[in-house]
Here is the input.
Amino acid sequence: MRFLFFMLFTLTWISLSAQPIKNRSSIINFLKQKVEKGEPLVAHVLVPLCDNEHQGIVPTSASIGNGMDPDHNLYWMTSKGVKRYFRDLSDWKLIESQKNVRDDILERVIFKKRFDNGTVLILVADAYRGDRMHECLNDYFNSLSGHLLDSVLVDSAYLKINGEADLVAFNGHNGLMDESTTYEVATENTKPKDAVSISCASSGFFKDHYWQTSSYPLVHTTNLLYPGAFILEGILNKWAMLESDEECKLAAGKAYYEHKPKSGPNGSQNLFNFGW
Here is the structure.
């Protein structure tokens, strides 16, 4: 009797769980429909601020390695940090900046860009406290699995982010090198979405979690690297034009070489991979 109950429970759980996303066909079709309807695409990036004290990193200077100070942080407000980098680009418009969104998130910025194919892209970027890596990772995977939901007001309309975003990215130190994460797996109601992880050697740490969250590994990394915002820009510029995962990966490598030429063109490309 116990065995029968266990089998019924297992079959029920499997039936309610979403199937892994083996390719991007359903995602691409959904993105095309949004663009054709004039609806904006939404990308949401989670950035754990660089933190000398609480992260397993080679320490940087104290002024940019304070995980409680987004105004000077390496991953946020230096020339290649997410907020400052996108703010300084002429084709991206900063439309909102919010401080202390919640206890874990010290700042949220929202950018907007229009593309030649008619796509309007909204980029939401959250700066997490450097000592809240666990919470940042949990939010990342719960967003991918559709269990963390939120919205932002853009142009007098509420846009769904986190679990209802079209792409969710992680940009910063690979916290999975230091600790585990806890999140809810995907269900049959989970919206398939693209996942990006811009952190050191993310391929071996993040891909199994993408399988559990029914998300597609659009671009991930193979080795140690600097997670500059220029990588995300390169990916988004191809993604918003509905290009393939391979094109997004190539754009990441090209952007890395442009900003870190010592890596060489081949070395820069080899830092990134796409798909399973």
